[in-house]
Design brief:
Helices cover 11% and strands 37% of the residues. It has 377 residues and is mainly β. The strands form four sheets. A ten-stranded antiparallel beta sheet has the order 6-7-8-9-22-18-17-12-15-14. It has a six-stranded antiparallel beta sheet with strand order 5-11-20-19-16-13, with no helix packed on it.
Length: 377
């Protein structure tokens, strides 16, 4: 029976790859040059980092301290809102839970949002900056939980610098031609109040990406119980495929659904693969620590008594160019005595190359059977 299961998976994967991205159209975001021009015209401060390949990432303190855009081979591979002054898109920090008794972003009845402007965009101030090497920003704010029992007085700090490629010293990858950008990112949460926050809040990092691509998430065991899709509208069955050592999820971008993956099922890696505008492909990889037995605090409304999820994948419901997807990772519930601070580090690896080269890289950095994973059109 087990052999039949793996043969079935191989047939699915083969079928997916055979018409791989046959009808895919690249959904492009404003490029870094046009974004910088708007920022200069409006006299908005920004910080630009560039590596030896002249690939770049752009940080804007006014817009929630976001990494608003990433330039890889001349293309912004993050989703950035076409109205640049909206300050939306890219990579940002969030705090979970989003809803429920201890949340403060969704309303207590889960219908719509509260005012979360103190968090996003917040009032980020630059703490430390070294040109093209390091940037640290912090935002301090106060807000009350949905149940009225917690008066949060918090400082959220974001630190980032250029990261090194993890494959530089591996002989089999030295001859491959690809564009690369690495970002070493850490965000921290500090409890400024006099009351202990005991595993009720967590740090949450998300990257907004152009839609019509595939999230590939390696798992400890390929079983249906590894993920759930009941945060919003159900994810269509045809948008999920089981692979030999991972799950593939399609990010459509014009209908809303969210998938959550449990901490005991995952390996602390999310990857996103989509077609670039020049018919190459780009791949974004996030790696982060996971504590399988720890409490995680963000969960669906209908399952508030269960443990939360440490990976979430989101498809937004608007049409292009306002459509986007999200790759999201959460820390466990943090122990925050008065005056204490906890950190959640993340490494972001971004590649642009032919599909065949990205399959080789994915098989090394994401999961061994990455080349057999289903990639959606």
């Amino acid at each position: 029976m087990k052999q039949i299961f793996w043969i079935f998976l191989a047939i699915i994967a083969s079928a997916c790859v055979s018409n791989l991205f046959a009808k895919s159209q690249a959904v492009t975001s404003p490029d870094i040059g046009s974004i910088v021009k708007v920022l200069k015209d409006q006299k908005i401060d920004y910080y630009l980092f560039s590596n030896t390949q002249n690939n770049k990432f752009l940080v804007v303190p006014k817009f929630g301290g976001r990494i608003l855009a990433v330039d890889l081979g001349g293309e912004n591979v993050f989703w950035t809102h076409p109205d640049i002054l909206r300050g939306q898109g890219g990579q940002r920090s969030w705090i979970s839970p989003e809803g429920g008794a201890k949340g403060f972003i969704l309303r207590p009845d889960w219908k719509g949002n509260r005012d979360f402007s103190m968090l996003d965009p917040g009032h980020y101030k630059v703490l430390d900056f070294k040109n093209n090497e390091y940037l640290s920003l912090a935002n301090t704010f106060q807000v009350t939980s949905n149940d009225g029992q917690e008066n949060y007085y918090l400082t959220l700090t974001r630190e980032m610098k250029l990261g090194q490629g993890p494959l530089l010293e591996e002989p089999q990858f030295k001859s491959l031609k690809y564009q690369f950008l690495g970002i070493d990112f850490v965000h921290k949460l500090k409890n400024n109040s006099q009351k202990k926050l005991d595993k009720i809040l967590a740090l949450w990092s998300l990257i907004q990406v152009p839609p019509r691509g595939t999230m590939i998430v390696p798992v400890e065991e390929v079983v249906r119980e590894a993920w759930r899709g009941n945060y919003f509208e159900p994810i269509p069955d045809e948008y999920v495929k089981a692979n030999p050592d991972s799950f593939s999820f399609y990010v459509e971008g014009s209908r809303r659904y969210k998938v959550g993956l449990r901490p005991q099922s995952v390996k602390g890696i999310i990857s996103y693969l989509a077609r670039a505008k020049d018919n190459d492909f780009f791949m974004i990889i996030m790696t982060f620590p996971v504590k399988p037995e720890a409490p995680y605090v963000d969960r669906p409304r209908t399952e508030q008594q269960t443990n939360g999820d440490c990976i979430q994948i989101y498809s937004h419901l608007e049409e292009a160019p306002l459509a986007f997807g999200e790759m999201e990772c959460h820390s466990w519930g943090l122990e925050l005595p008065p005056g204490s601070e906890q950190a959640f580090p993340i490494k972001i690896y971004i590649y642009k190359a032919s599909l065949e080269i990205l399959k080789k890289i994915g098989s090394r950095l994401v999961c061994p059977h990455f080349d057999k994973a289903c990639l959606f059109k």
